[in-house]
Amino acid sequence: MSTSITINVNGRDIEARKGEMIIKALERDGIHVPTLCYMKDLAPTGACRMCVVEIEGQRTLAPSCAFPVAEGMVIQTHSPRVKMARKTIIELLLADHPDDCLYCERSGQCQLQTLAIEYDVRQRRVMGSKSHCGMDFSSPSLVRDPDKCILCGKCVRICEEVQHVSAIDFTKRGSESLISTTFDQGLNISSCINCGQCITVCPTGALREKRSIREVAEALNDPEMTVVVQHAPAVSVALGEEFGMKQGTDVVGVMHTAFRRLGFDNVFSTSFTADLTIMEEATELVQRVTGGGALPMFTSCSPGWVKFVEQYHPDFLKNISTCKSPQQMMGAVIKTYFAEKNKIDPAKIFSVSVMPCTAKKFEITRPGMGRDGVRDVDAVLTTRELAKMIRAAGLDLSKLEPTPADTPFGNRSTAGKLFGASGGVMEAALRTGYFLITGNELEDLKFEAVRGLDGIKEAKIPITDDLTIGVAVASSLANAQTLIEQIRNGRDDLHFIEVMTCPGGCVNGGGQPFYQDEDAVRNRMGALYKIDMEGDIRCSHQNPAIQELYAEYLGEPCGHKSHEILHTHYTKRETTI
Amino acid sequence: MFPKGVQGILDRYPNAGRDQLIPILQEVQDSMGYLSKGAVVAIGKALNLPASKIYGVATFYNQFRFEPLGKNHVQVCRGTACHVKGSGTVLEAMEKELGIEAGQTSRDGNFSIEVVACIGACGLAPVIAINGEFHAKVTTDQISGLLAEYRETEEQA
Ligand code: SF4
Ligand code: SF4
Ligand code: SF4
Ligand code: FES
Predict the structure, then answer these.
(1) What is residue A290's predicted lDDT score, i.e. its pLDDT?
(2) Distance of CA B39 to CAs A166, A183, B18, B35, Å?
(3) Phi, psi of A389 (to 5 degrees)
(4) Contact in structure between B57 and B90 (CB atoms under 8 Å)
(5) Which residues of A touch B34 (CB under 8 A)?
(6) In the prediction, which pLDDT does B50 show?
């Protein structure tokens, strides 16, 4: 039986697949209908009605995101009636909206603003009473501004259905309804794990990251301070999008130059400490597998995931690797080894990291992330904030000459760069773990089974004749939750599990450039694998800068010094609301 | 530990699901006077629902409150008859006088305000009840004095 049917759209016959929603067929055919509440991978709610189309024989307009196709259907997507209906919706949304575009964080990238322009809303026809709810600045990672919320519900859904957290929900009703936390408390004491996924789906400026640009600018202007910056693997393959470059362009070289022009004294790559993380984590895994220890071991580099376990699965805390994340390891070696070597007082170093992630802003505040009252990392900028700083400094990325990062923490293997994609930590760990156990190098470095955008990926990896390890990779906490439940129910064939809080990994983090099509994540990921394929040094343990750091300072992986500065601990959290 | 009363109520709803949420919330409020944080968390654990969902559902309905009742509980009728006779301005004045909104309790715990649908005393509209005592044909300028009476009683006691 054929699953393909024909529908007629704006006078042309196009192909559609039986049972799919109208909008899917339109998308494939390149017809764009505006949406505000539609989320590709989740069931439609039909809440906003921006996507309405006219269907012959139907009295009322139908939401194309929630209305299935039927053979012979005749559809108008941009008839005067449809356009008028959409315009009215926009006008009604604006009736209750602050006139704040000039000062709004989201201006220029706001879907509501874009629609108002597209549908030529040039005057205020409907005047509503504006709501004033007050902003929530309590979170280290996010700012909520409910006055700019259009109640599309996307943040609620991603928080519940993708992240399994449900920190926020619709409260009250009618003209009073708003998105809020339990008991309207600050996000900082809610169950929010700071992932920022809600920001990435929000069509307006109602959700944004907590900005750190000012603190960084102040440090850069302070002649007493040595200002050091590190950039995470996923940043350089996404930043270009902010400047109109093709998705998947790696701008690492010009980004280094931009850092220097902005005034940073040293430019380091978090991928270097990703290599360091692999040395520590692979060693820890080998110790747990051979010497006994809680298995499966989970990765610890995604702070949203760590908080999730602290809140909901404290019995699994012993399963989380004690390794600090690459960001924190970099912070630690900068304020110890680097400071000692260059004879700088650690208190006079301002350590900045550029991350694809909003939860990293939370991570730097965790206890144990520093020593003697000095924090490992002082400020975190998202990729979007970095783009703002570059623009504000009048720098044209496309005209800058690329430069390398500084030694010694700028030298990475490409395995470290893979951390930016879901499955990348696993692949890097397997390359080094295999070497640590067998003393031999792998012939084929590629682990296809852990690549790609699937939410859960699994493989059985033979290491020696009598050791095969079971690995799993989960991205999004709903997927991590699934694995946890399986393990609770007795599943025992897994040794090592990588969890990334954001779907697809850091390339799709809550601090990354906003994108309108899902190819962005795929292209950013593709860029990382391309870098790896073309790299000279593709395994963390082969990175000479890593070998030198151990020889000069750390001793051996998981040794005394490592435990002192590169490892951490976790505690149960009583966050229940 | 969960509040005792709440646990007792929850015990009577074994294997409860989402559809039992409203009756449970009502029972808890009836027995405790309001829905405390502890209660919401306990209900969430029992029903396997996030606390935010429960709070969302509870705030959807006007009947639930999240603060204990004040020593003096003011009910302002917002039924049709009272509405026509200006209960809206009475409520506003009451909220202004006490510095709280309907559903809240004043900081000193002396007063709480509740909006009720219709007390069934339409002849007395606009009507309010304080601690169950009805006050008929209330005007906005009476409110301050009226509240003072209750406040005084409190102080003498
Ligand atoms: S959210 Fe959008 S429409 Fe609203 S003020 Fe900001 S830019 Fe303007
Ligand atoms: S940051 Fe993540 S956990 Fe927090 S409210 Fe947004 S989606 Fe939920
Ligand atoms: S905060 Fe943003 S995503 Fe959430 S409902 Fe409001 S507009 Fe939609
Ligand atoms: S996008 Fe279809 S109803 Fe909102």
Answers:
(1) 87
(2) 18, 12, 16, 6
(3) -65, -40
(4) no
(5) none
(6) 94
Instruction: Give A435's strand partners.
Output: none
* Cross-strand partners of B72: B111
ipTM: 0.85
The domains found in chain A, sorted by start residue, are: 4-78 (3.10.20.740), 91-209 (3.30.70.20), 214-566 (3.40.50.1780)
What pLDDT is attached to residue A576? 65
In this structure, are residues A416 and A272 in contact, taking their beta carbons and an 8 Å threshold?
Answer: yes
What CATH number does the domain located at B72-156 have? Answer: 3.40.30.10
| Closest chain A residue to the Cα of B52, Cα to Cα | A182
CA atoms A390, A415, A296, A473: torsion sign: positive
For residue A502 and ligand 2, the question of a CB distance below 6 A is answered with no
The pTM assigned to this predicted structure is 0.91
Q: Which atom of ligand 4 is nearest to the CA of A65?
A: 2
In the DSSP assignment, the letter for residue A170 is E
Q: What one-character DSSP code corresponds to residue A514?
A: P
B91 within 8 A of B76, measured Cβ to Cβ: yes
pLDDT at A264: 98
B81-99 average pLDDT score: 90
**Residue keyed to tokens 């208190």:** A347
CB-based contact, A576 to chain B, within 8 Å = yes
* pLDDT band at B4; cut points 50, 70, 90: low
Cα A428–chain centre separation:
19
What does the block give as tokens for B114?
């509740």
Cβ contact B40–A182 (<8 Å):
yes
pLDDT at B41 over 60: yes
Quickly state the pLDDT bin for B157 (edges 50, 70, 90).
Answer: very low
pLDDT digits (tens, 9 = 90+) for B119-143: 888 888 899 999 988 998 989 888 8
Instruction: Return the domain boundaries, chain B.
Output: 6-60, 72-156
Task: For residue B43, list chain A residues with Cβ-Cβ distance below 8 A.
Answer: none
Which stretches of chain A score pLDDT less than 50? none
In sequence order, which ranges of chain B are alpha helices (DSSP H)? 4-11, 21-32, 37-47, 51-60, 80-84, 87-98, 143-156
CB B79 within 8 A of CB B117: yes
CB contact under 8 A, B52 and A190: yes
Does A168 lie at the interface with B, CB-CB under 8 angstroms?
Answer: yes
pLDDT for A438 = 93
